Amino acid sequence: MAVMPALFLSGCKEGGLVSTKDEVSIGQDAARQIEAKYPVNRDLALNRMISRMGEDLVTVCDRKDIDYKFKILDIKEVNAVSLPGGWVYVYKGLIDAMEGDKDALAGVIGHEIGHVCARHSAKMMEKETIAGIAIEVLAKGNAKQWANVFANLEMLRYSREDEYEADRLGLRYTFRSKKYDPRGLIRFFRKLEQMEKSKPSQLEAMLRTHPLNTQRIQRAESYLASLRAGG
Ligand SMILES: [Zn+2]
């Protein structure tokens, strides 16, 4: 493992090498790059709806030390991503594919908020391991290079365990909010299964970053049952 760059050591707190301040500044840089590269949806009503859902879930989430930002990218693919520091991007293709199922959308947004709450990107930086990213980029590591890593949406991915954890948190937050049906996330998975057969090209990025399998759905089902049982 390469030596951790000084930037990350400087912000050490709460047991993590990457401070919230570092997360926010890296996320901000990546967000600027993403918004320069991809079209941002300006439909006021749609943006309001997504932000409202995000805020409803942030109210009941486990991490409130950052400002969450919810935006829509005008990309036809079915996908959603989150950056360190609280940026959440939902692709327009995902919104369209859910055909008005707001609970499914809320489930996906809850999943993305879950990645932020569990500091998955910060942990990724701490571990200096990102699948598919050349090791020399990481070894030199600095804030700018990390921002470039997170801005590269096609490459960005978390571990399978992180994905399961984000699923659990998404279910937990929709459940806690009492405003959304937590089964929405499971309906989203079912929808992906259907689309995998009918429109696989729109799912490439989503399935690369969020591998869908029976186990993932079963885990979500049993976690939801335990939530409902008060566990
Ligand atoms: Zn995820």
Describe the protein.
This protein is mainly alpha-helical and 231 residues long. The protein has one domain. 60% of the residues lie in helices and 6% in strands. It is built from twelve helices and three strands. The protein has a three-stranded mixed beta sheet, sandwiched between helices. A hairpin with a 4-residue loop joins strand 2 and strand 3. Helix 3 crosses helix 5. The radius of gyration is 17 Å and the shape is globular. The chain starts with 5 loop residues before the first helix and ends with a helix. The relative contact order is 0.15. The N terminus is likely disordered. The structure holds zinc ion. The site of zinc ion has 6 residues, from helix 5 and helix 9.
Quick tags:
231 residues, mainly alpha, disordered N terminus
Kindly summarize this structure in a few lines:
The protein is mostly helical and 231 residues long. It has twelve helices and three strands, in the order αααβββααααααααα.
Radius of gyration, in Å, reads 17 Å
What best-fitting shape do the alpha-carbon axes yield?
Answer: globular
Helix content: 55-70%
Order of helices and strands: HHHEEEHHHHHHHHH
Give average pLDDT, whole number: 86
* Largest sheet: spatial strand order: 1-3-2
Q: How many domains in all?
A: 1
Name the structural class: mainly alpha
Question: What small molecules does this complex bind?
Answer: zinc ion
Report strand %.
5-15%
**What does the main sheet amount to?**
3 strands, mixed
Tally of contiguous helical segments = 12
End-to-end separation: 38 Å
